[in-house]
Amino acid sequence: MGPRKEDRNKETCTASLNAVKDALYVLNGKWKLPLILSLQEGPQRFNEIQKSLGEITPKILSKELKDLELNEFVVRKVFSTTPVTITYELTPYSESLERVIDELRDWGLKHRERLVKNRRTESVAAEITASL
To answer: Which residues belong to any copy of the HTH hxlR-type domain (predicted)?
Structure first.
């Protein structure tokens, strides 16, 4: 975790803020982390990635792959076959996101569970109120 509460000051807060902004700048958008998760299965061609992600358009997928390539998370490999084969795969550097992805997954599961539980509670309360 970050600095302890008693160790926080303007410098550490600014450093933390800048670090989080840098991370969000690189991983912004709704597709980058799902794209990385998709590529954890191994090298894939463009159409395979698009199918695995579902609703992503080719234009957005192309942009996201280029961004991930620029930030050294993905490598694009061109094979001189007929027709040319292009695959995308994760770099060893992408493994540095493993803990981030694990934490986001765990938090997401707990958050969804909380929302579902609260909806049930609200639904039961509404039914009781309606029956009175």
So the answer is: 13-116
Please report, for residues 13, 60, 61, 125, the alpha-carbon distance to residue 88 in angstroms, rounded to integers and kept in the order given: 37, 15, 12, 50
0.85 exceeded by pTM: no
Average of per-residue pLDDT across 64-71: 96
Residues in Cβ contact with 36 at an 8 Å cutoff, skipping those fewer than 6 apart: 68, 73, 74, 90, 94, 97, 101
8 token code pair = 């926080």
Tally the C-alpha atoms within 13 A of residue 19's C-alpha that lie toward its C-beta. Answer: 8
Residue 41 pLDDT > 60: yes
Mean pLDDT of 79-108: 95
H helices present in the chain, as ranges = 10-27, 32-39, 46-53, 58-70, 98-131
Asked whether residue 87 carries a pLDDT value surpassing 70, the answer given is yes
Q: Name which of 39, 104, 21 is nearest 77 in CA terms.
A: 39
Closest listed residue to residue 100, CA positions, set 54, 7, 33: 33
Among 48, 72, 50, 76, which residue's Cα sits nearest to residue 61?
50
Q: How far apart are CA 49 and CA 53, in angstroms?
A: 6
